[in-house]
Amino acid sequence: MKGFTMHDSTARMITPATELGSAPCFRTEIDLDTGHGDVVAATLRISSLGVHEARIDGQPVGDDVLSPGWSSYEHRLRYLSHDVTGLLTAGSVLTVQVGNGWYRGRLGFMGGRAFYGDRLGVIADLEIRFADGHRQVVVTDESWTAGGSDVIADDLYDGQTIDARRRTTAPGWSLPVRVLDFDRRRLTPYIGPAVTRQDLVAPSKVWESPTGRILIDFGQNLVGWVRFTTTGPAGSEVRLRHAEVLEAGELGVRPLRDAQATDRFIRSGGVDFFEPTMTFHGFRYVEVTGLSLAEADQLEAVVVHSQLRRTGEFACSDELLNQLHRNVVWSTKGNFLDLPTDCPQRNERLGWTGDLAVFAPSAAYLFDVEAFLADWLADLAAEQQAADGLVPFVIPDILKFQPHPPEFPDPDSTAFWSDAAVWVPWTLWEAYGSRDLLERQYPSMAAHVRRVRTLLSPSGVWDGSFQFGDWLDPDAPPDAPAKAKADPGVVATAAYYRSLTTAAATAALLGFAEDAAEFGALAERTRAAFHAEYVAADGTIRSDCTTVYTLAIVFGLLSTAAADSAGQRLAALVAASGYRVSTGFAGTPYITEALTRTGHLEDAYRLLTERSCPSWLYPVTMGATTIWERWDSMLPDGSVNPGEMTSFNHYALGAVADWMHRTVGGIAPLSPGYARVSIAPRPGGALTWCRSSLETRHGRIEVSWTLTGGTLKVTATLPPGVTGLLSLTGHPPVELTEGTHHWPA
Fold first, then answer.
1. Model's pTM, two decimal places?
2. Residues catalogued as catalytic
C-alpha cells in the first residue's frame, strides 16, 4: 500500500443531505470481496471538515482525538492513515462522527464561527488487500448514510453537551448524504504527530465553596477534559465548568472572557459513561453540578496534547527552579495541542508566531518537536505565500476572517512575530540537523527578509510600521501591553538584523551564494543603520532600558568593546530594578544570556532566582503549576490581574528554560543536531548541584555537576560518535570523545 495517497483515491467529501446539527454520524457496511482468501492488510485513510472519530464495529481505528486538527484549511487539510487489519470482519460497519472543531466552531477573540465553511464533512478511503493479491477499496460516496448522535452541542471554547438518552432513541443512520465540492489536492498526510490522550489525573481535593458549589482541584493546570461514569434519573444533568484559578473561593472564570468552558451530560437512567472528546479545556479546577461530593471525587482528568516524545531533563538543588522548569514543561504540553498556541483556555487558543519564535529553543530541548513544528511551518509558508510574503500574527491565520482589532492598525510584517519564519526553522536545524526542513522552509525565510526590506525607513531602520515591541513589559499598563519602555524601532531593527544574519547563513549552507551575499550585505547595512540611529556616542542605546541592551548584545549588533560597555549598563539597570524582571516579551528570553556573555553571571542568577513580583519565581511562590501570561496574572492578595488579557498557561515567558539548559545544565550544540556538543556549565547563585540530559539524534547526552566548598566536579557522558568540548571558567577547554568523563580527572 506504499505510495498510494488520497490524491489517487476516488473518495468524495460527503455531508448529510439535511443539516443534522452537532456531531452527525456517517455509516457504511463493508461487504468484503469473497473468494480471495484472508484479509492480509487494510488501511483507512481519513480526513474531515470538522474533527472526527472513526470506528469499526464500535472500536476506535486509532488512538488519536480531535483529528485532523487545525491546519490552514484553504491550503492544507491533513489526513491520517490507520492500520485496521485486525478490526475487519465480514459485514463490518465503519462509522465516523464529525464535530465542529476548528472548522465550524467558534474561533478567535473578535467573535464569529464557521469561518472555513458551514457544512461538516468526511472523506475516507479504506484499502483492503487479500491473500491472493486482490485489492478492494471502500470510499466515501453517496452510498453512505448519516444520522444524528448523542452529541447535541460541541464547541472548543464553550464545551460539549452529551445526551445519553439519544444513544438508544436517536434517529437511525438512514438519512442520505450528498457530495461537497472539494479539491482533493488540498489533502496532505500529517507531517507531525496526532493528538492523543496522554495521562489521567485524579482529584487532589474536593470541597464545597462558600456559596455551596462543589469544586474539584486536580492539583495541576492541565489541558484536556474530565470523564466519569454515573447513574441517575433519565433526563437529570451533570454540569462541569472549568477554570484555571479560584477567586474569592469560587471558580475564577473571568480570565476565560466569553468562553463558556462548560460540559453538560444528560443521563439515560442507566449506567452512563461520559467523555467529551470534541472539545478541550485549560483548567485546574472544576465546578460540579449534579453530583455529590463522593461522586465528584471519582472524576478523572484526561490530559490531551500532541504525541511528543520527552527528550530533555533538568534538575538542580533549588526546588523553586525545579518547579519553574516543571511549569515550562506543562505549559508546553498544554499549548502543543496540534499546533503551538498562546493559551488553551479562553476564547483565543491561536498559533501566535511571536510566542513560538522565542520559545522554540526551549521546546526543542524538552521534546522532540521537529515533525510537530515542521507541520506548523508548512502552514506558515502557505499562509505567507497567499499573503504576498507577509507572515501573519497567527498561523493558521484566522484573524484575516475577523473584524480587525481596533487597537491595532492594519497588520504588516511584525518583528519577533513574523521573524518566526526564519528563527524557528533555524532552531530546528540546530536541534536536529535536518537539512531537508531548511530546504523546504528556505523560500519562506527569504521572502520574509525581503518583505521587511521594503518596510525600512530611509535611514535603514525598521520603525515605520506597527510593532508589538517589548510586549507585556511589566511596567506597561494592564490594558496597554504594547506600551513598553523599549523603543519599538530598536526592538524591530535588532530582530531584523538577527533574521538577516540567519537567512544569510541558511543561504550559504544550502548553496545559494547570491542570496547569502545579498542578505549579508543587507545585514551589515542594517547594523550600521542601527548604530547611526539608535546608539549614542557614549554607548547608550535609545530608550536606555534592559531590553534594548539585551537584544543588541545577544543578536550581535555590537562590537566586543561596545558589548562589554552595554553589559555594564545592563547589569546596572538590572541591579537598579532590585533584580526584578523589567523586560517584556522581546527582552525576557535573552536577558540572562546577555548578562552571562558580558561577564555578569551572578546578576543573571540573582535575576532568575528573585521571588518578588515581577520575577520568574513569583508565580511559583503563588502556587503556579504552569507559566503565566503576565508576571502578575495573579496579584499577591490572590486576586486576578484586572486586565482583560490574563492567562495562567502561556509558555512564552518560560523561554528562560533555554538558558537553564545551556548555562546551568551546560548542554548546547556546537554543530547541528548535537553531533558535536558544548559542555559548559556555569554554576552560580546558591546552587550546589545540577543534572541535565538530552536525547539527541545521536544518542543521550548527560551532564551533572556538584559544587562543594568551592570545589567543582563535573561528569559528562557522550554517546557513540559524538565529540564535545568541556569549557569551564578559569580552565583551558578539554576535548571530549564518546563515553563518560570526569573533571577533575
1. 0.97
2. 348, 629
